[in-house]
Amino acid sequence: MWCAVPLAAVVQFALAVARTDPSTRPRAGLDAAGLGPVRMSLLAAASTAISCTLGSGVALLVCLELRGDLGGTPLSGSAERLLDGQAHLPWGATLTLLGLLPALASATCAVVLRPRREATAPQPPVDPEAETAAPAPKPAVPPTPKPVYTGLPWGIAIISVGLAMEAYVGRGPAPDPDTLLSLPGRTDGASPGVIGGWLLASLGLVLAGPGLTHWCGVLLSAGRPGAVRLLAGRILQDAATRIGRPLGVLCAVASGALAAAELYGAAWEGSGPRPFGPLTGLGAALVMACVTATAITAALDSRQSRTGTTAALQRLGLPASMLRGAAVLRTCVLLAVLTPLTWAIAELAALPMTR
Length: 355
Fold this sequence. Notes:
Elements: H1 4-20, H2 37-67, H3 91-112, H4 128-133, H5 151-169, H6 192-221, H7 227-238, H8 240-265, H9 278-305, H10 307-315, H11 320-354
């Protein structure tokens, strides 16, 4: 259970890297060599599995060295007490690191990156006599439908349900720092209702991420915008689906971290016991690093997808300073909207348990 959140964060980061890897994208001429879209997705899954296996192997070697199981270096046994070097390393931990992580990451890449078949409308039957008499008019090209971000109202509703669940269940004193993950609701451990409320609030943030990003772009483009503001707003609206979900995950993790710091900070004295151990801090740092890297990777992928548009704008004489100003404006607007929202949800999540 402790490995579930870091495992999900690493798998999400592996998927983001595989999605933006230029060597696994379909290119013209590869179909003749037998590398179509399906095989390219399998190639991306295999590359992800190899990368995750190598990284997990290095992590296992570092863990064994710090435990003192290998020996021969100055760092051997430096964390023997912390990593329980006196006992044998559990097989379940080794299999989770070396087997479950690469398998989940590669399977997720194979499923998500597999090409989807687009549904085509059935064509009406053609009368040969009518076709010889007069040429049939060309069918009108339907306009491209605008994406509908239905996740925003659902995200707001799920956040409200999660906070209400925490307010109802989380009635109790401040957590005891001597107990591992002690939350109000149960005296011997974590309360399922409180954890469920946290998970619902986090899920709501993830679902609301694309919609919030889209409406940030709409806000920038409202009124009579200038060139920089219009460009920044249109880019945000176009990239809402691509960068909104990773930003929602990042906000959810940051909100959980702020709520945990607020909840445990009241009971954490400088001379008393520590509610968070080094391994908990290592797991939190891993999750935060992965979700931050995923958001950055999604932003770079969005920038790469706009290469043709950017080149066309530069050929029209648009200065590079205007493009940089639009990028800075997009970043500032997202920070101005998402940062107070993340902080407010974290405070509301911790408020029922700190009273």
